[in-house]
Amino acid sequence: MSVTDLRRSWQEPPATIVFVGGGPRTVGLLERFAASAPELLGERAVEVHVVDPYPAGGGRIWRREQSRLLWMNSMTSDITIFTDDSVECEGPIAPGPDLATWVVGEGAVILERAGLEPAGPMDFPPRLLQAEYLAWVWERVQRDLPATVTTHLERAVELTSDHRVVLASGKEIQADVVVLALGYLDRLPTASEAAWAAQASALGLTYIPPGYTADVDLSGLRAGEDVIVRGFGQAFIDLMVLLTEGRGGWYDECDGLLSYRPSGDEPILYVGSRRGVPYHAKLGYTVAGTKPVPTRYLTTAALDELGEGVLDFQTQLAPLIEKELTFAHYQQLFSGHPERTRWSWKQFFEVLDRSLPSSPEFVAAVSAAVPSVEDRFVKAEVDRPLDGRFFGDRERFERFLVELIENDLLRRADPQYSADLAVFNALLSVYSVLSQAITAGRLSDEDRVRHVETEWHGFFSFVASGPPPRRLEELLALYRAGIVRFAGPDLSVAIDNGEFVAQSSGVPGEIRARAFVEARLPRPDVLAATDPLLRGLLESGVLAADELFAADGRSLGGGQLKADSQCRAIRADGSVHPALFLLGPSVSGSAGSSGFSRPHFNGPGFRQNDAVARHLLRLLAPTVRKEERHAS
Q: FAD-dependent urate hydroxylase HpyO/Asp monooxygenase CreE-like FAD/NAD(P)-binding domain location, by residue (predicted)?
């Protein structure tokens, strides 16, 4: 009997794959699945189920039902769901429009129907525009899939031992393979947050703990009252928008200066943080030839040379990271703006290559070769611009901070400072290496939580993931209108005499208020996640996530879900689950592969999606096809 006759005489039942989570990660993975299916799937029928209480495509974060005032902090030209020739993957490249191309092409009519203005390639569009793009991509992916697709607008609550996915409605789906592509997870409050909430409630105060701002109830923040806000990143920007324009205020512009017209319903926001300054504005330019490149000093080979086993982040990795960023900055400065340097690049590079950025030899070389302080890169000064400063009064501090923000806006719009763009690109490359080191177990739990997920990610976000420049212009307008005040660095908050009291190490005096907002996302902790599916899988041992402890025995809370290099779930006993896959920010080693990829960037998310999709296809391929490959 021929192989063809064998296929005809014996047909396997359809394979069923269930995706829990219908956001961009699932969409991207299924796009890669469709691309490689003609090569790997053979003739077996496949049924795809996508389970998410929010519509597939955008999922929760990128849903259509959210405020039109909330923007992305990426330009339209920086986002794509589709692979291009830059992507190094085993599967075929299947090009499609990036967001900027889609807006003026297939998306133009869709956006007009939705009442959304078109956005240029250098614009920071509303999140609703991205929601429409993702919905369109999802429709296209469904058409390309060699499978029947069923979506379930509800939550998955259980995965049984015989691989049935149980939904909140009671419906059950028997699955051959399950992919948990969970994004932002709600979590139980920490002991500290629970204590804050209880005490605030008893005193009639308003306390808003960390959370995704678009989902937070802000009705307790009253018009005209002072509100202490701790956090100066994306969560604060969203809060600022919802409490100003979202309450009826508007902006006027005259001679390039923005003015805010209050509605009278706004509270007064006193905002501070650890740094005491807002995140840097997004870069407003591109420079030909500047793009992410492989790391030079922080490489897998360099880490291997440091020895086997667990490495120390502070003494072994941090110096290499700083050197990587320093190299990127000065290489671009010397090549792009040689008129602002006194040495040749060759002479300067020789000193950099043999020393560390903190060494006296290199510090002296910078002093001699780079005359302007504005052209120099010192990571510690970039990270903490107010460190060591003390201001005699709040007015003096606020004047200083206004000038700092104004200068940042000018610099981030000026390609004469393209060394900043080189550092941005280097940050992306460093993240990729750190992700590999985490997955390979080269970092201790304490280093991963404290130094990578907290300190390093905070620095990355501060420098590379800040708001659109317009948002900082609005911040300054709100300051001039008296709606926003600046509270200072190292902001501490306590309750005293029935009020919240905030103090800063760099600014004298205290701020008293009835309301306090923690404007940040909660730290990922899957052991504290409220999702019933995850909790059940962790309790049964099907999933593993260490409870993390510092070297002195202090608990660091829960970490991320454990997965192997192929994204297969690792059970509590250390074994690998062959048919349960984990993807997203709550999974160990996800650094650098979450978020959206930029066109022509060879994004790690594409590479990971492609590898997982091809693995899934091989698992689901017909037995006859597997036997053919084995025989060959």
A: 18-184
Return the bridge partners of 583, or none: 181
- Report DSSP letters for 436-485, one per residue: HHHHTT-B-HHIIIIIIIIIIHHHHHHHHS---HHHHHHHHHHHHTTSEE
Single-letter amino acid, residue 419: A
* Region of residue 82 (left: phi > 0; alpha: psi -120 to 50; beta: else): beta
Give the model's pLDDT for residue 8.
41
For residues 158-171, one letter each, b for 16 or more C-beta atoms within 10 angstroms of the residue's C-beta and e for the rest, the string is bbeeebebbbeeee
Nearest Cα to Cα of residue 546 among 564, 567, 576, 572: 572
* 63 contacts 55 by C-beta, under 8 angstroms: yes
Q: Is 279 left (phi over 0), alpha (psi -120 to 50) or beta?
A: beta
Query: Which residue intervals of 587-622 are DSSP H helices?
Result: 604-620
Is 329:377 a contact under the CB 8 Å cutoff? yes
With CA atoms as reference, report the closest residue to 272 among 382, 191, 386, 196.
Answer: 386
Nearest Cα to 231, choosing from 259, 200, 198, 273?
273
CATH H-level, domain 11-185+563-631: superfamily: FAD/NAD(P)-binding domain (3.50.50.60)
Q: What is the DSSP letter of 71?
A: B
Q: Do residues 16 and 47 touch, judged by C-beta distance below 8 A?
A: yes
| Among 101, 106, 186, 183, CA closest to 143 | 106
Cα(186)–Cα(155) distance, integer angstroms: 13
According to DSSP, residue 165 is labeled E
Residue written as token pair 């780079």: 370
Cα(321)–Cα(296) distance, rounded to whole angstroms?
10
Low-confidence residues of the chain, pLDDT below 50? Answer: 1-10, 624-632
Distance CA 522, CA 532 (A): 18
The string of pLDDT tens digits covering residues 608-626 is 999 999 999 999 988 644 4
Pick from 167, 95, 134, 430: which is nearest to 292 by CA? 430
For the chain, the structural domain boundaries read 11-185+563-631, 188-234+516-523, 300-464
Token code pair at residue 178: 């399950």
341: its two tokens: 């340097």
List the one residue out of 515, 470, 476 whose CA is nearest residue 217. Answer: 515
Tokens of 200: 């605030």
Q: Enumerate residues 6+ apart whose C-beta is below 8 A from 552.
A: none
pLDDT for the residue numbered 286:
81
Distance CA 51, CA 62 (A): 16
* Residue 261, SS3 per DSSP: strand
pLDDT given at position 435? 81
pTM for the model stands at 0.91
Instruction: For CA atoms 516, 522, 527, 532, give the dihedral sign.
Output: positive
